[in-house]
Amino acid sequence: MGKDCLFCKIVNREIPAEIVYEDEKVLGFEDINPQAPVHCVFVPKEHIATLNGINTENSALAGELVRASVEVAEKKGLSERGYRVTINCNSDAGQEVFHIHLHLLGGRKFNWPPG
Ligand code: AMP
Ligand code: ZN
After folding, report:
1. For position 75, which CATH number holds?
2. Most buried of 33, 54, 98, 101 (most Cβ within 10 A)?
3. Which domain holds residue 29?
4. Which of 31, 65, 98 gets mutated to test ligand 1 (max ligand atoms within 8 A of its CB)?
5. Atom of ligand 1 nearest to the CA of 29
6. Is the residue at 113 inside a domain?
7. Which atom number of ligand 1 is nearest to the Cα of residue 97?
8. pTM above 0.85, yes or no
């Protein structure tokens, strides 16, 4: 686990979160500062700081994050109207928590390009 990593602490139940999804490798929970009517984040239980840490050994995890978000999007009734999934990597993308996480955003219209 990453020392002092916020999302590792959520995975280890040291910090509370409203959990929306869990399996052996992935945890999904409500974002504490939602940017849309639906805003959840999905993290691998294994600590990987940024998307740059994805390689041939662990890349299946990226698919697991996507699959989990698709499942929750379906449960939250977003499948037909649509939703957005995003992974921010490092400073140009505005990454603030350095444990890979996929954002699931839905329930409103989003702009493209994202700005
Ligand atoms: P990013 O900017 O991609 O690193 O996103 C970090 C996300 O984590 C932001 O959307 C925050 O609102 C969210 N966040 C920060 N702390 C918590 C927390 N304790 N529980 C849930 N979400 C959090
Ligand atoms: Zn971590």
Report:
1. 3.30.428.10
2. 101
3. 6-106
4. 31
5. 21
6. no
7. 4
8. yes
Number of other CB atoms surrounding residue 6 within 10 Å: 17
Ligand 1 center–CA 32 separation, angstroms? 6
Pocket test for ligand 1, best of 35, 92, 97, 98 (most atoms within 8 A of CB): 97
Total count of domains within the chain: 1
Burial code (b: 16+ CB inside 10 Å, e: under 16) for 63-95 equals: ebbeebbebbbeebebeeeebbbebbeeeeeeb
Predicted confidence (pLDDT) per residue in 34-50, tens digit? 999 999 999 999 999 99
Mean pLDDT of 89-107: 98
- Expressed in angstroms and rounded, the spacing between residue 81 Cα and the centre of ligand 2 is 32
Average pLDDT over residues 74-90: 98
Q: How far apart are CA 20 and CA 41, in angstroms?
A: 9
With a pLDDT cut of 90, the percent of the chain lying above it is: 97
